[in-house]
């Protein structure tokens, strides 16, 4: 009889422990579900943000190409202007050098 009481106490404690563990697992599962829902919402927001960033970077690349063409045109224009001035200065020096011997020759002839 004493053994039967011990067995009943063991089964009672085991049943309470199983219900307690099952309850704790159910609560933990509910929290995991909430966390996963939040994670899904966060991932969806990140996906939208990354698509937005991708389109912004595409537009930025387009503008950089256009501005690069504008900058290249501006640099070419300035470089051309400087080269024309430099070429004009060189041709003036050549003209001056070419004119001096002629003037010197003319002076000697007189």
Give a quick summary of the entry.
The protein is 98% helix and 0% strand.
Folded structure, characterized:
The chain is an all-alpha fold and 110 residues long. It has one helix spanning 2-109. The protein is built from one helix and no strands. The longest helix is centred in the middle third of the chain and has 108 residues, at 2-109.
- The coarse silhouette is rod-shaped
Question: Unreliable segments (pLDDT under 50, ≥5 consecutive)?
Answer: none
The biggest sheet, with number of strands, parallel, antiparallel or mixed sense and barrel status, is:
none
In angstroms, what is the radius of gyration? 46 Å
SSE succession: H
Helix content: over 70%
| DSSP, total strands | 0
Proportion in β-strands: under 5%
Q: Cα distance, first to last residue?
A: 157 Å
Mean pLDDT rating:
81
Number of helices: 1
Structural class: mainly alpha
Blueprint of the fold:
Blueprint: H1 2-109
Question: Which descriptors apply to this entry?
Answer:
110 residues; mainly alpha; 98% helix; 0% strand; rod-shaped
